[in-house]
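The material for today's practical consists of a large collection of protein records. There is nothing in a record beyond a sequence line and a structure line. Backbone structure tokens are a discrete shorthand for how the chain folds in space. Nothing more is needed to start thinking about how sequence determines fold. As an example, a complete record with its sequence and its structure tokens follows.
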Amino acid sequence: MPVVRREVSDRTAFGKVVKWTFILFNILMLGLLLLSCKTNSDAIANASSQAEYADAATAGATIGAGLVSGTLIFLWLAGAVILGLFVLFTRRKKIIETEE
């Protein structure tokens, strides 16, 4: 007689909320990083248009852009690791159903 084995592993309601929070967090952080890149490039371009202190303004805008981008990347990685662990720990164990 053939034996049919089927794996069942559906998430609980809390697990689904955690999973979608993880996905939305990553989408939000990608959007913030892209917006930050656009804003930083505009700030650097506008800083160099000032005549008297163009070099100092450009250097300051570049340093500020690096700090902002580095902070966003750090927050993204820290949040992704923490939420990823929650996603990993809230999954249900696989249940194997056998039918004869």
DSSP finds two helices and two strands in the chain.
